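Q: Please design a sequence for this.
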């Protein structure tokens, strides 16, 4: 590609940071999922259970969004 080496390297650093962030978000999601799974079934259907499930949905959305950012940066890096 044509992109200058410095900028390509800067993108790589951003990608490395995003990868760490993605891992953190996934760990939070796993902990939240464990919390939900450890609730008694009667509680899973309660407001608390629903709140945890909503949090899990948002965390999964966040992971997908991070993937999109990573993808866009990788494409820019290849220019």
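A: Design:
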């Amino acid at each position: 590609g044509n992109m200058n080496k410095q900028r390509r390297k800067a993108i790589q650093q951003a990608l490395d940071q995003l990868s760490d962030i993605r891992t953190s978000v996934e760990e939070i999601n796993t902990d939240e999922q464990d919390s939900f799974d450890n609730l008694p079934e009667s509680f899973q259907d309660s407001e608390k259970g629903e709140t945890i499930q909503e949090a899990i949905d948002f965390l999964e959305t966040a992971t997908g969004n991070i993937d999109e950012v990573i993808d866009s940066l990788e494409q820019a890096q290849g220019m």
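Q: Thanks. Anything notable?
A: The chain has a mean pLDDT of 95. The helical segments are 5-38, 41-44, 47-77.
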